[in-house]
Task: structure prediction
Amino acid sequence: MTKTKYLLPLVMITSLFFLWGFAYGLLDVLNKHFQETLNITKSRSTLLQAAYFGAYFIVALPAGLFMNRYGYKRGIILGLLLYAFGAFVFYPASEASSFNLFLLALFILASGLACLETAANPYVTVLGDPETATTRLNLSQCFNGVGSFLGPVIASYLFFGENTTTDSNNLDSVKMIYVIIGILVLVVAGIFMRTTLPEIKETEIVSSAELNERPLFSHSNFTFGLVTQFFYVAAQVGIAALFINYCTESGVDINNAAAAKFLSIGLILFTVGRFVGTSLMRVIPASRLLAIYALINVVLSVVVISQQHWLSVYALLGLFFFMSIMFPTIFALSIKDLGKHTKKASSFLIMSIVGGAIVPVLMGLLADQYSTAIAYIIPLFCFLIVFFYGLKGHKVKPVV
Result:
């Protein structure tokens, strides 16, 4: 259980998970919106994901170094200020109807999110008993899921509503929502500036002094976790990025607005899956549950690729439920017993999110060349890697 003195910090940090979940939820709807309003291809629209997740790769390590010197709190405040600034850049991007300026705005915004995630994920794991770190991180990530599903719900009405035209000048809704986000994030930054957060030394919670002194990349649970997180994020981002395209091309008469609402249902399932998974971890080891969920998603991916009309759409929705616990569980298992290396390891794990920048572009190319369904071969491969990590790769090797 989390100690009482850690309750307020845990609640405040959990609020950050909601904020970056909401930003991510909007991202996938922007793909389809920009394809139509800015007249760009599927593969070019996935450059949004490249800008967004590429920022994680570039900024995460400097963010970790910044926090090693200045602490978690200042890292969080820096992240919030960058988040707000990026959101405000959406205003001139909308005025200019410039896709390249939108890419810059997303890069700045995501740089802030990279700081937040580099700080918040490991911070939650050390705010309490190490034995419940995975469960605690999954619980905080539940609110990330809440933000993720609210994003597409709002975007489906603002971007694809009945009164929304699709000419290149109709970007007012994009401009409005991001200005509001920027103002809200600045308010949250002000609250963090006025709040005291405890700084915790990770060296005090490692299970043995020998593990604390072991070089970072000799921890196999971390190195394999780094690879696994790359491929998991690749799968999650790729599945969502082409979700609307898959639904509208499935042959079951789903339009853009309906597909965006289906995406919100998928993200509701994602959120519910995190709450269910957090509860199941009380009776099933986190690593075993990770392996089970990954294997189920391998089967569901086969159904998606096979294009069985509504059955495949339902399988696509099912992927969200079983992806739910993967990121926080892989993260927590990867940083277990890293001691003094925890902040640096967190930086590398956040850098691995670059999988979300690279792989969706490959999926977009496959979709343009063959079909959107064929592109889902890539997530299938990614889930196989997650399965092997949950089965064996997560184990902390003892010091001999």
